């Protein structure tokens, strides 16, 4: 049964969202993009008379040894408060995410009410993909809805095991994300131009390898470009690069004419932009300097290619855009995509979303993926446990 056809009236709905938002050291929310994306489905379920139980993780609590510190730093409580502001509705919060007390609380809820459960990853069963934990969660609801595409690459209990324990539905936003990303892989309007920047080189190299078969142009920047420049001997003064990245490059045909690399770059010995910034070809960078942005010549070549595209996919800023002196490349590429006449303009990944929000360009894209790792895994052709559990793969 589809989400739209299901009768939610009076049903207890376990809605898996990804409320894993970036926080600063004080626990303040730095970007609420993912919360905004959860709103339409919550509104829909409210209107349909469901009892809404929100499930999510936040950060990696198991990495924090001290339990009290873990609970203080990574509680979902403040996220619930922000959600409540955005929804203009009360969002109840439960310190526990399973057990009799939570079931009692839910029993008292009326249709349309919303409850957020505490961080699922406080329970080891979540990351262990424990069926027992999934069954404990399943006892809280009548139906499970997955709206968390960005967690579907994780074989975790609330993503992979829960659909085995409860009737499940594909959330409309997740389905939209799945369809948009699938379009890039299956018959995209051509030319298909793919721009890969940022870090997370291991996942990005897999995507680059896949798109050598699928894309018409592959424009590289950021750390992936740096690796290729180094491997091709075009950046002789490069620092020591991760051995596993260099090993992965051996599977990629670096001489493929679809691959475009920066012709000029901004280099400095100071990543905060405080030092002397020089514009040079990668070969002209000195040993004490690193590459922090693409230069004007590269921008102009990339802009021209983007201008011809019918489909554009962009993952990863092309420079250290958080620092003003190195933000020009990312702004120029984002604007070129925003202004292009391409039929399909897609972007994704935490930093790319942050850049687009900073430059106020999100509305100029056909779709922005909430996923970082999940989006890259999907595009690299990997099987995502969360999508398999929903029967989408
Ligand atoms: C993400 O931020 O990509 C998702 O929320 C998954 O988080 P994770 O990388 O901690 O599993």
How many H/I helices?
Answer: 16
Question: What class would the helix/strand composition place it in?
Answer: alpha/beta
Low-confidence stretches: none
The residue-averaged pLDDT reads 97
Bound molecules: 3-phosphoglyceric acid
General shape? elongated
Straight-line distance between termini: 17 Å
Helix content: 25-40%
| Main pleated-sheet profile | 6 strands, parallel
What oligomeric assembly is this protein in?
A: single chain
In terms of topology, how is this protein built?
Blueprint: E1 12-16, H1 33-47, E2 51-55, H2 67-73, H3 77-87, E3 91-94, H4 100-107, E4 114-117, H5 124-127, H6 131-138, E5 143-146, H7 157-165, E6 168-170, H8 172-185, E7 192-196, H9 201-214, E8 217-220, H10 222-231, H11 243-249, E9 259-260, E10 265-268, E11 278-280, E12 290-294, H12 296-308, E13 311-315, H13 328-339, E14 344-348, H14 350-358, E15 367-369, H15 373-379, H16 385-389
Parallel strand pairs: 1-2, 1-5, 2-4, 3-4, 5-6, 7-8, 7-13, 8-9, 13-14, 14-15
Antiparallel strand pairs: 10-11, 10-12
Helix pairs in contact: 1-3, 6-7, 9-11, 9-15, 12-13
Bound molecules: 3-phosphoglyceric acid.
Offer a concise description of the structure:
This protein is of the alpha/beta class and 393 residues long. The chain is built from 16 helices and 15 strands. A 6-stranded parallel β-sheet has the order 3-4-2-1-5-6, sandwiched between helices. A 6-stranded parallel β-sheet has the order 9-8-7-13-14-15, sandwiched between helices.
